[in-house]
Give the backbone structure.
Amino acid sequence: MKKINLALICIIYFVTVCNAQDITLYTPNGSTIQTFLNAEGTAEWVTTTTNQYASAYLNAEVLAPASRTYNCHSYAWNLSKGGTQRVWMNQYDSSGNPNIWKYWTDASYSETTEADAENIFYYDGDHSAVKSKTNAGKYESKWGSAPLMRHYPADVPYDYPTHRKYYKNALQSTISGPSQVCDQATYALDNLPAGATVVWSATPSGIVSYPTSGSSVTLTKVGGGKITLSAAVNNSYTVTKDIWVGVPLGPISIPNFSNGDVFGSYSIYDFGVDYFTNEGVNQFKWTVGGGTILSGQGTNSIEVRTAKRAKGSVDYVFDVNVKVGNSCGWSKNLWVTGYVSSGMGGAVAIVSLSPNPTSDQVEVSIAENTITNNLLSSTSENSNSTSYQIKVVDSYGLTVYSATKKEKKFNLQTSSFRNGVYAVIVSDGTNTYQNKLIVKH
């Protein structure tokens, strides 16, 4: 299909809008950039133009429809950096002086290689683009008044598409300040250009209060949760920082332990806790009823020995309670309650693993006369009476192996398992037993 060249189209369009309202933007270092406010085209024009380019460039992807309000330079140097003004930006100003060149001549951006580039300037084609953050090897650019496209570097409607220079932000402004707000915290922009204006915002609203302008900002806690603090500099680019406000929400779950689970008497188990990692969690508090914490208190996992119960006695309540904390304080508690079985031997004895730790293979042995209804009571090496379920769960609670078995002894391949600690869990539908497996390659 015939390609469309934008050069003549853009020249004609620039002439018709050259007397549009001027809007001044600024480079990160504060140099002025001349831009224009333009009226949008009709809905019919937007649809027709968008479809025209989508059909002509089959290897490119339309990211946003055609628009007369902004062009390639405005998208690359303004909107893609967090700018809020949809404006038309030319390579030269109305007096014929360099305009977008100021982004690199005032040291806001420095020339670099394509591998390290953020922005691309087609110097013989009067075109600007940014490197795609989601599709390696592709650029994203607005094609004049045509659509915003994701495309291969040379697949553009401009002359000399291989004549390119590459630039990256030389200032690398960041927001300094703590990652958590307990009551109040102050934040500032590093590498802020002299005389720059900064507008602050935090989303979602209602979690913190703050002034909206100034070179620094103090956040005051109102609610709790995650916010994104944004600093818009000179209305030309935006810097963001994710912040957690208040105490953690609390643990999500204790993998391998659900309410009602049954554990062996006087047996050793490992329990970990899932929690949101962006809440600044750095401390853990465990409480166990019906057992004893052997190790791990204060960390994200513990080793527990269940209480010893005489055979034939009433099952004993077994519960694990955990809360997590950050620098602001402690979350609510998470309780999970199960039982210690009185009539069964220790689960470690019921589910034997050898060798442990292992690398490529482990032998799993189920002790006789331990599963409900003497499931494995046959004196033969491999009982074929009734089946049981076995699964292997990693430290994140993900099942990496699951099967139905009848044999009381079998080999489990672990060569595909990652290094770490796993729970081998056996269930007859009524009782559950588990043992710890360590995989080291």
Notes: The domain at 347-439 is CATH 2.60.40.3080 (Immunoglobulin-like). The first strand starts at residue 21 and ends at 26.
